[in-house]
Amino acid sequence: SFIIRFINAFSDPYAGARTYINKKLLILKSAKFVSSKEHTHPFKYGIIFRHLESKIYILCNGGYIILNEYIFDNTITPGDRAYTPNSHIEKSFAKRVIYTPKGLKDD
Fold it and tell me: How far is CA 7 from the centre of its chain?
């Protein structure tokens, strides 16, 4: 799944992929995709349907994602939605990223 490759590509040693729940930052560090033959309407993508111990279950295209590692400093409740505003996505495409021997160069 594209989303799993994206999450894992930005995990350690990097800061983690990012999205939001209730306008609060959720940093995604490690995830697993579980395929399902059951059809999920696109409106349900991003909805958290289970939160057990330290894992979050999120509906997505073709099944669901299990977040094994994440950073979130707030309460997560089934029914919440993980969502990244388009403005954040567009901003990431417009930014020129430069790495030096010391790491990411700040603007």
Answer: 6
